[in-house]
Write a structure and sequence with these properties.
By secondary structure, the protein is mainly alpha-helical. It has helices at about 1-30, 40-55, 60-85, 90-115, 135-160, 160-170, 170-175, 180-210, 215-230, 235-255, 260-275, and strands at about 130, 135.
Length: about 290
């Protein structure tokens, strides 16, 4: 029983990371109706930036804030420079841009900081807490993730800018008619997605260690969570991310073993696409032809 509780709590901790990345994927999908395959590499690049600032002498939380701000600006620049000209491009062209971004960020990260695995500091410590069921970093990263998700919810639910961004994502034509600057709302959405991804990268780096390919498996789990909860539902993506974290830990410990845990994400993706493509909380889009 103690082992089961430990796996569930650890799964919730890692699921919080997946939920953050899944939320970032959903925000980009709502803006472009495409999946940003470079989301993980962008988060990795941001995490290396944070490590650079820490090595330069900045306190952890100062480096954290600076990295989030720079990541937000990077996301806005990417939307303005690369994605805006692709607004009316064919689907495959946009997919090609996402894949190109993935390769560029991966290669740039390795070229700037090399490909050796690095340790990333944690401000929460690693001592066991809650009777040894969860570590300090797992508890702290879960708290940070929940705070970020709560701030995002409050922003979209109760601020004029957040409401404008939601309107631009759901119905850009009507939003333009009431004066919403849809182009800039989409750019801010990219910025928020990049900032949320940066937080996820900094929270997961102390666990998996830092290297240019750190977020590859995490992005796959996050994509499974986004599909499970609903690729059109931010709340569903968060719930799906936490669910995938728990499923991964339990199945890895008691069913398939650690060697096959990554295949669980593929199983979840295929099962959702076959059984319920809209996910648990997603909207089923019907078009009149």
């Amino acid at each position: 029983m103690a082992g089961l509780l430990h796996q569930i709590l650890s799964g919730l901790a890692t699921g919080g990371i997946y939920a953050s990345v899944a939320l970032a994927l959903v925000m980009i999908y709502q803006a472009t109706h495409h999946v940003n395959f470079a989301q993980g590499e962008m988060a990795t690049f941001s995490t290396y930036l944070a490590l650079m600032f820490i090595n330069l002498g900045l306190p952890y939380w100062a480096a954290f804030v600076v990295t989030v701000v720079l990541s937000f600006a990077l996301g806005v620049v990417i939307e303005r420079v690369l994605m805006r000209p692709m607004a009316n491009a064919p689907v495959l062209a946009s997919v090609g841009v996402f894949i190109g971004l993935l390769l560029i960020f991966n290669a740039s990260t390795g070229a700037i900081w090399d490909y050796t695995t690095k340790a990333f500091p944690t401000p929460f410590g690693d001592r066991p807490l809650l009777g040894g069921y969860i570590s300090g970093h797992e508890l702290g990263s879960t708290a940070v993730t929940l705070v970020v998700l709560l701030l995002v919810y409050v922003f979209f639910r109760y601020t004029r800018l957040g409401l404008a961004m939601r309107a631009a994502a759901y119905n850009p034509v009507s939003s333009r008619l009431v004066g919403v600057r849809v182009g800039w709302m989409l750019a801010l959405g990219w910025g928020l997605a990049a900032a949320i991804g940066a937080v996820a990268g900094m929270m997961v780096a102390p666990i998996v260690f830092l290297d240019p390919n750190m977020m590859g498996g995490i992005l796959l789990y996050a994509f499974a969570g986004a599909l499970l909860g609903g690729i059109t539902s931010p709340l569903g993506a968060v719930i799906g991310g936490f669910s995938v974290g728990v499923i991964e830990n339990l199945a890895g410990a008691y069913i398939v073993g650690t060697e096959l845990k990554l295949s669980l994400a593929l199983v979840i993706i295929v099962a959702v696409l076959v059984i319920r493509p809209s996910g648990l909380m997603g909207r089923t889009i019907v078009a009149r032809v």
